[in-house]
Backbone:
């Protein structure tokens, strides 16, 4: 059975990165979609990811949207299990290009809402391995 | 399918418009197009309007009906198109389809937007709405943020040091600002004609590695075109420009693109669709307007459409390959960076600028010489969410 975004967000609040495993091809889809991201199958089951991965890219947002406070770091992480996931990055000190390729792990979540967000939204937060 | 021709174009000045609504801006562009072609309002059989953020910019939804009434058109079918920054390119493509199919002979199509009334924080919030509202926006992703992520990934994947890539990106900014400075319709007309690499690199950081001069501005404006069945085009103009090929593609959340964020398949397939339909290749295109919302976006677009090999477009820009006399003169109007980016009007504006080039009517210094036979438009909405391509030619 498929997962919904609400399942993904609730799991994040419990410190878990939750996705879907395809019963036909084995591919993991995270965050959840209605079908397997690779083969399109609807035969899916819930699967917990390790929360570990590699930092693929990031940026420091200095001009934030209305309702958010900058600066903050947005990143794309390639999880150990395969799927790329967008989240926030908590980094100590200056964030430069040399951070790309560093190992990261899920360290928490960021909760946010505004008048357009249809209630609270939850985002994964990652930290570089070796940083507390 | 029938041949379809552009028989009239209209374009407001791009920039700040305090005393014009989006509906009024559209009417000015539309009336210009109609006057140029000698078309009366009663002759127009359908209206296609690109508008992305009118709901937020002015609190105006369903703008197409208000545009119809403003222009005194008949009680004709009117439709709004929303594909973020590609809204009016998609509108032109659908308008082309309706005329090509034989359903209509003469239609009015364009786009209009007022972004500046929103101010930077709300505009930043609403631009982000084209990204995934659950998996991307809550992380704080902004539209410049999308291409900041792409720039760092591009540097890593192609083994091009970020400092080198930033110099190449600066060259895109310099070139497009220079073209915009020569275009009376551009937001930066008469400004930034001679930017230096150092000025681009040291302007205010928006989201690293993108500085303010790597980004297009917020803009108000409108553009409109009349499309007509090819066999009737000469009734309205001596200089019809024909739509030779069109393509469209779609994406989704950025994360699903993975490494292909540096060569998005939605752009590759959309461009191929247009080339195939026109029976042309990148080498046949003589002038190009592409979606340079950010400098890195121009580099990615040039490669995805097949004009330069992967990882090499920045070098080509530095060598002058995207200038007059180079391999493919690009964004001679100033592009989004130099001319401005009124979201829902941008695609129609790009088409107007190609028509201007193919008619030999571009501003001095920007006109490709000899007058080009074939031009192309590339527009992208969101994070490669909507892609649309049009190929236009002087001969049908
Ligand atoms: Zn599968």
Residues:
């Amino acid at each position: 059975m498929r997962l919904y975004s609400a399942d993904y967000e609730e799991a994040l609040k419990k410190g878990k990165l939750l996705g879907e495993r395809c019963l036909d091809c084995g591919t993991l889809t995270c965050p959840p979609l209605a079908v397997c991201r690779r083969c399109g199958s609807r035969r899916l089951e819930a699967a917990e990811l390790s929360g570990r991965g590699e930092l693929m890219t990031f940026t420091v947002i200095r001009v934030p949207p209305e309702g958010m406070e900058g600066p903050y770091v947005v990143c794309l992480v390639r999880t150990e299990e395969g799927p790329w996931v967008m989240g926030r990055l908590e980094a100590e000190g200056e964030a430069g290009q040399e951070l790309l390729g560093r190992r990261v792990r899920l360290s928490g979540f960021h909760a946010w809402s505004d008048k357009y967000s249809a209630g609270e939204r939850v985002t994964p937060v990652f930290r570089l391995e070796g940083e507390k | 399918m029938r041949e379809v021709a552009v028989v009239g174009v209209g374009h407001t000045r791009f920039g700040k418009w305090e005393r014009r609504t989006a509906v009024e801006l559209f009417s000015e562009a539309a009336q210009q197009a109609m006057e140029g072609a000698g078309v009366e309002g009663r002759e127009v059989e359908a209206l296609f309007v690109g508008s992305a953020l009118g709901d937020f910019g002015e609190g105006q939804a369903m703008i197409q009906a208000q545009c119809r009434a403003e222009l005194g058109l008949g009680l004709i079918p009117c439709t709004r198109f929303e594909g973020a920054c590609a809204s009016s390119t998609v509108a032109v493509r659908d308008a082309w389809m309706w005329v090509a199919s034989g359903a209509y002979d003469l239609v009015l199509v364009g786009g209009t937007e007022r972004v500046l009334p929103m101010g930077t924080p709300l505009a930043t919030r609403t631009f982000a709405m084209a990204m995934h509202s659950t998996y991307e926006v809550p992380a704080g992703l902004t539209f410049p943020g999308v291409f900041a992520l792409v720039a760092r990934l591009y540097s890593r994947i192609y083994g091009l040091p970020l400092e080198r890539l930033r110099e190449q990106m600066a060259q895109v900014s310099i070139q497009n600002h220079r073209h915009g400075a020569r275009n009376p319709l551009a937001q930066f007309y008469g400004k930034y004609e001679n930017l230096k690499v150092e000025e681009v690199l040291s302007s205010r950081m928006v989201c690293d590695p993108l500085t303010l001069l790597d980004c297009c501005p917020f803009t108000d404006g409108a553009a409109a075109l009349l499309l007509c069945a090819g066999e009737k085009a000469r009734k309205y103009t001596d200089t019809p420009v024909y739509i030779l090929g069109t393509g469209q593609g779609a994406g989704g959340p950025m994360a699903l693109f993975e490494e292909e964020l540096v060569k998005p398949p939605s752009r590759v397939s959309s461009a191929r669709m247009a080339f195939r339909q026109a029976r042309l290749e990148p080498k046949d295109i003589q002038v190009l307007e592409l979606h340079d919302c950010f400098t890195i976006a121009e580099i990615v677009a040039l490669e995805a459409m097949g004009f330069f090999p992967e990882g090499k477009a920045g070098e080509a820009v530095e060598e002058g390959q995207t200038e007059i006399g180079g391999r493919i003169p690009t964004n001679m109007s100033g592009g989004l960076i130099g001319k401005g980016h009124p979201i829902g009007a941008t695609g129609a504006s790009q088409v107007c600028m190609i028509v201007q080039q193919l008619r030999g009517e571009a501003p001095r210094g920007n006109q490709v010489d000899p007058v080009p036979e074939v031009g192309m438009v590339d527009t992208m909405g969101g994070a490669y969410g909507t892609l649309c391509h049009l190929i236009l030619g002087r001969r049908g």
Q: What stands out?
A: Chain B touches chain A through 38 residues (CB under 8 Å).
